[in-house]
Amino acid sequence: MVDFTSIKSRFHLPEGVTYLDGNSLGPLPVAATDRMAQVMQDEWGEMLITGWNKAGWMAQPGVLGDRIGRLIGAEEGHVMLGDTLSIKVYQALAAALSLRPDRRVILSDTGNFPTDLYMAEGLIKTLGQTHELRCVPPEEVENSITDEVAVLMLTEVDYRTGRRHDMARLTRKAHETGSLAIWDLAHSAGALPVDVAGGQADFAVGCTYKFLNGGPGAPAFVYVAPRHTEATAPALSGWLGHAAPFEFERTYRAAPGVARMRVGTPPVLAMASLEAALDIWDGIEMAQVYARAQALSERLIAGVEAACPMLTLASPRDPDQRGSQVSFRFEHGYEAMQACIAHGVIGDFRAPDIMRFGITPLYLDEGDIDRAIAVITKVMAQKLWDDDKYRHRSAVT
Ligand SMILES: *Cc1c(COP(=O)(O)O)cnc(C)c1O
């Protein structure tokens, strides 16, 4: 059994705050501060440029990639870190499209995170408008996988509602019709059991600053199925994805394996805090984390529904159909969330009307959920949200 109490103590959580937004930005692992200072002082400070070799900076994107690989069921040596998730979406999509040159449709769903769709639009433009981005409602995805589809590009867990796609089933359907499947694991990695190898995903991408707690701006990851790596033509053919970067050859030759998905210089400092965050995952089974997230989610739903009839559950009621978040709809959701935050319960708001609460058992327990229920109840019952000071919209909601 995972000792969740001792794991919670490995995170810094500000006094008086109940944090239900780890699905957007995980909290600070206590060890990350020292690890970061060590990398800055002992490695950057003392080793200077020799740190690339001596401290293993250059190998780190693959080393940490494999540690994430364990959490998403990837084969060893097939996950690479770097850049941001938007970039990794672009790379995976470009690679997948070039593996299906006779097909023209990218299929996604209308609930997908905008950047994934924006990157697809941009890529289509770059390719000369030869492709079509087809977005259907999530529940129509399965029946829309036809032999026109080059690539099925989905986010497993919907960022607004927490609704979960059946990755294995949809991937199987895609393969039956000759399509490839790209899975965005932004709200899956570190949240629930993922099996990219068993589920036959062709490509997978995700970020490390949400459920994996790598810190703001921590690098993204990309998985390429072993059967595709050697045929994958990198669209972003940067020098660190070259077979021999320090030969400084005139033309590009892709590195063997997933290393070809590297682009430029890796973010060494950001990887330091991510490394400290990944230490916490050692020995933790994702099934246990997800089971506890489901129990905590049920507790939150029951408590809120009992006390706040004005909030409507936007997440699936069946725990197995949800990721690790609970969302409610409320017309004045933005103001209500600001009021919750002012009273010590941090969740977030997603337009147009979603109040979103991330359920992260590494550092949340029943007491936190009960505190959250009490504050949400107070904000709603006393209409605390109905105040001018909660109406101002900041850049990040
Ligand atoms: C959070 C998230 C992103 C963010 O992309 P960045 O490039 O890291 O800013 C992209 N896609 C999905 C599905 C997300 O949930």
Question: Could you name the key traits of this structure?
Answer:
single chain; 397 residues; alpha/beta; Aspartate Aminotransferase, domain 1; Aspartate Aminotransferase, domain 2; 4-stranded antiparallel beta sheet; 15% strand; binds pyridoxal-5'-phosphate
Describe the biggest sheet?
7 strands, mixed
Strand content: 5-15%
Identify the overall geometry: globular
* Spatial strand sequence of the major β-sheet: 4-10-9-8-7-5-6
Polypeptide structure, described:
- The protein is an alpha/beta fold and about 400 residues long.
- It has 2 domains: about 5-30 and about 285-390, Alpha-Beta Complex (Aspartate Aminotransferase, domain 1); about 60-280, Type I PLP-dependent aspartate aminotransferase-like (Major domain) (Aspartate Aminotransferase, domain 2), CATH 3.40.640.
- It has helices at about 5-10, 30-45, 50-55, 60-70, 85-100, 115-125, 140-145, 165-175, 225-230, 270-280, 285-305, 335-340, 365-380, and strands at about 10, 20, 30, 80, 105-110, 130-135, 150-155, 180-185, 205, 220-225, 310-315, 325-330, 345, 350, 355-360.
- Strands 4-10-9-8-7-5-6 form a 7-stranded mixed beta sheet, sandwiched between helices. The chain has a 4-stranded antiparallel beta sheet with strand order 11-12-15-14, with helices on one face.
- A hairpin with a 3-residue loop joins strand 14 and strand 15 (about 355-360).
- The radius of gyration is 21 Å and the shape is globular.
- The model has no long low-confidence stretch (mean pLDDT about 95).
- Bound molecules: pyridoxal-5'-phosphate.
- Pyridoxal-5'-phosphate binds next to helix 5 and helix 6.
- Pyridoxal-5'-phosphate (PLP) binds near residues 113, 115, 184, 187 and 207.
